[in-house]
Every structure is written in structure tokens, then in C-alpha cells.
């Protein structure tokens, strides 16, 4: 009996020690993935370019706030996470951080004091940044960004998510090796695209599904779920690899055009993607945009082959709309009354101006929230350097009832070549009510 | 006076409430059920935004002669043109909010010089209606709204020809009364007139649908759909 208690006691002590170690032993920080020459100096503009590719500014700047001074509220399923001040201010920013501290935040998701960052910071992607880019980015933040003294609201998630040490276990499972491993069987352009997509541009943060532990499925193209579509705040981030997905239906040039200007011959960007293009992707060089497009098309169902030209056929939907019979169902009637002037009876819209609705990933998305939101509140293309016009679609929230929006959305999701389930008035009401908050 | 196709005959004054009921009946038949809006306040119970009772009575009577309810097609009363005029006079148009309304004023200047009176449209209605009513009483024995239809037509013709020599500050009165009546008849229903898009249905105007590109090449084919309004009413 005595021995039994001794064993139990020892196990308890060991357990407590392990737990304390789990909580208090500092995380081993990943060092540089390559050893740079002592006199390495990033090229002029390289740091800012990496910042743009990584879209740091979008999250680390509050609405109307100073650049990089943090304080933006990020709505996560666990609660509101406030982004931090990453200006080189010594008290409230990262002014006292060394290159190693900085790299640890990008690679391991820990701050200078060793606290875990919430994975709203996409360190599972930034972990692939090359040492050259890490140094360039560090250089940029320390030398080119204006220090701003600004405290940000403390992130207070509910239990158990406020136990940041728990992220240690999450990191064990979610993080792969640091650094980017090029695919030797592919060319430099493909690998440059892979490096950008998997690393700085952190496309997977939205476009990959997350598992029950909120981890992105896969960190590279070898995982079939990687970039197969995800969900963000109830909106669907479309699949990028399936045969019906935009990247696989468009040419490489058209995909690059979309990334740089938010519009191409087929579609236009809305919601979070419009913001990603406005704040980040439009700053990429044409070559990098082409590299991303090449990579995305190669890892998809099309395997990089040129898309099959569409057959010029008249769908029953187009015939129904063209005939405009007074006894037509309400869905197509609403389309004629509200949409057809721009999106045309063939559902093809007009290139670089009005997106096609036939085969549009937003229209057929798993969650109809994005489609409903655009019908109710409209959409606006971001102004980009190459295409500055902020083309705008008005909202129809004052013109269409919940039932009418549901009927119209159901028609769009089942019109032309589309095949997606119906939308209910309750779904529409939920989106309408959300906007009134 | 006016030359609307299919309106050859004159009619006796149709009671506004009766006309509204008639139009509500028509609307219920021709509009899809889900678009049928609740019946609006009858004109006889309508509380004007800016017109006083005598002014309202005049506008009701005058527009009923300018676009009468008998003959083919709806009249100004069934399409609620008086509501449109009241709302416009109560708003920016009535106050001439976005017009150049700074002197010097030359009300007697050539009409080719446009709006020369210091009065805004609402003030013109307010000042001209009593003048015209007085003239009707002196000439025909009753104020305008109480005259029979034939005499009302005669009085309006006299007003148009300025037989009473109205003062120059008010000379725009007949012009804006006629224009506002047409506007109320044909404007989008969101402004209070063209109720149920009845005027659009009558002339076959398909409304604010935006584009009819696929119909451009279809010659001598009647466009089949009824109109749609800016707020999405379907007719």
C-alpha cells in the first residue's frame, strides 16, 4: 500500500513538473534557416516588398490609425484579438526587439518575452520566409517605419483560450519545418510562386479548411486539402484547385491580372479578397503575380494546362431571360428587373467591369453569405495602381425583401451552369441583421 | 390643353376616393400578388406636407382637369399626382434650394430669360391660387374647385392665356402647374405620383429595368413585361 502511494505520489509530482515545464520552460526558438554573410544587406525596397506581400499593415493598423501601431480588432471564433503595435517604438512597439526576437515571432509565434502569439498572426505561413526576407523585413520595421507610441487594448479571450501556454501544444501539431523547401522537379517560377503563396502571402489562412483544432489543413500542395477552400467569418473563401475553381478556369495571365487589379475577363474580387488585393497583392511585381498564378494553376485540377475554351451555347436560363414572358417565375423576373442590365441574360457580365455570375465562385459558394451580402449591400472594386477605377455595384437592401433576395439568390445559384443549393429568407435576414449592428 | 392620346372626352369630376378604390382594384388584378402594396391613404384623407386645405383643394381640382380620369388610361387623381406636387413643393423643388435665387430680380423681363421672379415655386402656388380663385369667383361666380368641369377647363385656359393679367411675379404659375402635373404622372412612384406605375403601364414604358439589349434586334415584337420602379415594384 505504501509503495502504491509512493508510485502515485511520484506520478503526480512528475505530472505537475511536466505541466509546469509545459507552461514555464521557454519555447526553443528557431534560428536562421540559412547563415547569411556577415555583411549581408537587403536590397533597397526589399523589406517593404516583403511587408506588402505579407500584408502586415492591414492587420497591424487600426481603422484610421497610424500605420503598424496595432489595435485592430480581429474577430476570431474564440473572441476578439487585438493586433499589436509593431512600430519600432521602444515602449509600446518592437523597438527593443533583436533580429532573433523578430524571427521568433515570425517563425515560432512567440514574442520577445516568450509569450505565445495567437495564430491570428499567420506564423504557420511566415515560418516559410527565407532568412534574406526575414532580415529585410526586420530592417524595414526598424529603420523605415515611424515609431508610434500607442498602447493597444489587451486581448482577453474566454477560458480556455486565455491560457496562452496551451498554444505550445497547438504549435507542436500545426507547425512544420521552418524555411521553404523548393520542389526540385519544378522550375524557378513555380517555386517562386509556391514560396509566396505558402509563405508571405499566407493564402492558406483563408483558402484552406481548418480542422477542429483551427489548424490549416496542409502547408503545401502535397496536401489535397491545401487551398481547397475555407471559411472566414461565415464567408466562404473559394477553392483554388478544383476543376470548377477560378484559377483552373482562367488562363495564367488572367489569374495574375486578377491578383494585381482585382478584376479580369471573368470575375472581380469582393470582400476579404478585395482587401487583400488592395493592401497587398497589387504591390507585387508582374513577375511575382505570374509566378503565383503559375503555381496555383499547376497544383490544381488543370495541372497548368490551358483552360478549355467555353462552348458558345445558349443555356435554358438565357432563353428564359431573353423571352421575358410575364408568367416567368419570380427569380428570373427579379434578375431581369435588377441585375440583367449589367450581368446580362447570359450571366457572363462584361469583362473587367461586371463579373460573370455563371461559374462565379462567390455565387456558388458553400456559404451563401457572400452572395447575399453583395446583393444586399453591393460591392466595390478596390482602386489599384494598374486599374484605379473603383467600380461599384449598389446594394439592393432597400429594394428587395428577404424573400425576394432569397428567391433571386436561389435562381443565381441554379442558373446557367451553376448548381448550388437554395437560399432561405432566414439566411438573408441573418445577413441583413448583422449589418445593422 | 393637353394632348394625351386616348383622352378625347371630358368628364365630370370623379370623386377622389372612388377613383382610388377603382385603381386599387385594377392594381390587384394586374400586379403579382407579392408586389401588391397596402392601399395608400385616400386622397380625401391625405394630410399634405405643405399645402393648406384651400391650396390642396385647388391642386386636386386642377390636376383632375389637366389629366382627366375619363377616357382611356388613368388620370392625375388615380395616379395621386396631388401627393407628388405636395411633396415636391415641401421639398427642395418648392424651396428652390439648388437654384440661383439671388437678385437682381426682373419679374417682367422677357420670358426667354427664364425664372425672374424672387418667389420660389411653393410661394408661387401659395400666392397665385388665391389670386386665381378670386378671379374665378369674379368671373364665374365660384372658386375654381367648386366650378363644374367645363367651366374649370375654360378658367384654366384663361389662366394659360393670362387673360386675368396676373402680376409678373406669378406668371410662371400655369407653366409649373402643368409641368408638375405631367411630372407627377410620369415620375417614379417613389416620389408619390404615378401610383402603381399606372401611367407607365398605360403608355407601355417598362420602367427602371436598366437595359433591353437582347430586344434591340427584335423588330415589331411587343415587349412583354410590365414596368419596374426604382424601389422594385413590379407592374
TrEMBL record, chain A:
Supply the InterPro entries for this chain.
Answer: Cyt_c-like_dom, Cyt_c-like_dom_sf, Cytochrome_c-type_DH, Membr-bd_ADH_cyt_c
The record describes how the cofactor is bound as: Binds 3 heme c groups covalently per subunit.
Superkingdom in the source lineage = Bacteria
Question: Which positions in this protein are listed as binding heme c 3?
Answer: 339, 342-343
What are the residue boundaries of the Cytochrome c domain, all occurrences included? Answer: 42-145, 188-300, 326-416
Subcellular localization, as worded in the UniProt entry: Cell membrane
Which residues does heme c 2 bind? 203, 206-207
Keywords of the record:
Cell membrane, Heme, Iron, Membrane, Metal-binding, Repeat, Signal
Protein name, please? Mono/diheme cytochrome c family protein
Species of origin? Neorhizobium alkalisoli
From TrEMBL, chain B:
| Signal peptide as annotated in the record | 1-35
Return the protein name: Gluconate 2-dehydrogenase gamma chain
Origin species, per record, is Neorhizobium alkalisoli
Keyword annotations:
Signal
- InterPro entries given for it? Gluconate_2DH_su3, TAT_signal, TAT_signal_bac_arc
- At the top level of its lineage, which domain of life is listed? Bacteria
Q: Report if keyword Zinc is assigned.
A: no
Amino acid at each position: 500500500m505504501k509503495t502504491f502511494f509512493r508510485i502515485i505520489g511520484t506520478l503526480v509530482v512528475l505530472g505537475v513538473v511536466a505541466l509546469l515545464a509545459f507552461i514555464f520552460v521557454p519555447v526553443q526558438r528557431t534560428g536562421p534557416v540559412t547563415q547569411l554573410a556577415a555583411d549581408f544587406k537587403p536590397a533597397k525596397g526589399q523589406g517593404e516588398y516583403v511587408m506588402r506581400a505579407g500584408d502586415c499593415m492591414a492587420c497591424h493598423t487600426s481603422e484610421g490609425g497610424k500605420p503598424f501601431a496595432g489595435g485592430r480588432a480581429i474577430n476570431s471564433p474564440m473572441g476578439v484579438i487585438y493586433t499589436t503595435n509593431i512600430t519600432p517604438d521602444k515602449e509600446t512597439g518592437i523597438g527593443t526587439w533583436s533580429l532573433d526576437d523578430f524571427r521568433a515571432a515570425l517563425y515560432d509565434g512567440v514574442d520577445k518575452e516568450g509569450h505565445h502569439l495567437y495564430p491570428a498572426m499567420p506564423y504557420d505561413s511566415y515560418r516559410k520566409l527565407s532568412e534574406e526576407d526575414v532580415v529585410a523585413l526586420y530592417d524595414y520595421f526598424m529603420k523605415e517605419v515611424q515609431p508610434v507610441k500607442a498602447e493597444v487594448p489587451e486581448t482577453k479571450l474566454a477560458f480556455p483560450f486565455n491560457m496562452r501556454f496551451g498554444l505550445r501544444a497547438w504549435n507542436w501539431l500545426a507547425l512544420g519545418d521552418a524555411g521553404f523547401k523548393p520542389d526540385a522537379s519544378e522550375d524557378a517560377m513555380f517555386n517562386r510562386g509556391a514560396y509566396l503563396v505558402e509563405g508571405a502571402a499566407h493564402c492558406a489562412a483563408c483558402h484552406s479548411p481548418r480542422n477542429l483544432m483551427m489548424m490549416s489543413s496542409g502547408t503545401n500542395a502535397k496536401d489535397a486539402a491545401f487551398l481547397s477552400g475555407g471559411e472566414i467569418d461565415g464567408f466562404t473563401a473559394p477553392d483554388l484547385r478544383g476543376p470548377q475553381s477560378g484559377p483552373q478556369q482562367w488562363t495564367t495571365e488572367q489569374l495574375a491580372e486578377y491578383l494585381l487589379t482585382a478584376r479580369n475577363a471573368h470575375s472581380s474580387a469582393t470582400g476579404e479578397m478585395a482587401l487583400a488585393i488592395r493592401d497587398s497583392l497589387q504591390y507585387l511585381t508582374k513577375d511575382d503575380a505570374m509566378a503565383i498564378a503559375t503555381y496555383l494553376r499547376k497544383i490544381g485540377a488543370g495541372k497548368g494546362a490551358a483552360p478549355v475554351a467555353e462552348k458558345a451555347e445558349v443555356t435554358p436560363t438565357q432563353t428564359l431571360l431573353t423571352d421575358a414572358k410575364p408568367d416567368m417565375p419570380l427569380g428570373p423576373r427579379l434578375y431581369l428587373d435588377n441585375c440583367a442590365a449589367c450581368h446580362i441574360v447570359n450571366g457572363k457580365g462584361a469583362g473587367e467591369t461586371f463579373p460573370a455570375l455563371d461559374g462565379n465562385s462567390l455565387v456558388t459558394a458553400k456559404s451563401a453569405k457572400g452572395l447575399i451580402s453583395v446583393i444586399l449591400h453591393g460591392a466595390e472594386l478596390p482602386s489599384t495602381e494598374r486599374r484605379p477605377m473603383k467600380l461599384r455595384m449598389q446594394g439592393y437592401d432597400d429594394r428587395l425583401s428577404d424573400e425576394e433576395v432569397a428567391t433571386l439568390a436561389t435562381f443565381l445559384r441554379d442558373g446557367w451552369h451553376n448548381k448550388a443549393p437554395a437560399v432561405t429568407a432566414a439566411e438573408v435576414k441573418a445577413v441583413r441583421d448583422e449589418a445593422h449592428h | 390643353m393637353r394632348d394625351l392620346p386616348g383622352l378625347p372626352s371630358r368628364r365630370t369630376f370623379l370623386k377622389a376616393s372612388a377613383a382610388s378604390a377603382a385603381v386599387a382594384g385594377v392594381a390587384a388584378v394586374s400586379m403579382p400578388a407579392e408586389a401588391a402594396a397596402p392601399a395608400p391613404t385616400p386622397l380625401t384623407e391625405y394630410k399634405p406636407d405643405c399645402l393648406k386645405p384651400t391650396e390642396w383643394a385647388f391642386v386636386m381640382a386642377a390636376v383632375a382637369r389637366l389629366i382627366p380620369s375619363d377616357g382611356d388610361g388613368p388620370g392625375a387623381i388615380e395616379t395621386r399626382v396631388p401627393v407628388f406636387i405636395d411633396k415636391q413643393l415641401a421639398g427642395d423643388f418648392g424651396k428652390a434650394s439648388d437654384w440661383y435665387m439671388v437678385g437682381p430680380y426682373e419679374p417682367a423681363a422677357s420670358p426667354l430669360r427664364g425664372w425672374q421672379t424672387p418667389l420660389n415655386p411653393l410661394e408661387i402656388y401659395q400666392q397665385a391660387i388665391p389670386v386665381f380663385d378670386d378671379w374665378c369667383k369674379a368671373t364665374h361666380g365660384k372658386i375654381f374647385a367648386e366650378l363644374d368641369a367645363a367651366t374649370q377647363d375654360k378658367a384654366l385656359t384663361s389662366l394659360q392665356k393670362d387673360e386675368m393679367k396676373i402680376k409678373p411675379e406669378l406668371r410662371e404659375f400655369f407653366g409649373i402647374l402643368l409641368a408638375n402635373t405631367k411630372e407627377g404622372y410620369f415620375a417614379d412612384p417613389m416620389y408619390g405620383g404615378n401610383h402603381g406605375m399606372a401611367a407607365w403601364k398605360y403608355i407601355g414604358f417598362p420602367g427602371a429595368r436598366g437595359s433591353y439589349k437582347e430586344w434591340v434586334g427584335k423588330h415589331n415584337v411587343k415587349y412583354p413585361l410590365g414596368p419596374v420602379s426604382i424601389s422594385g415594384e413590379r407592374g
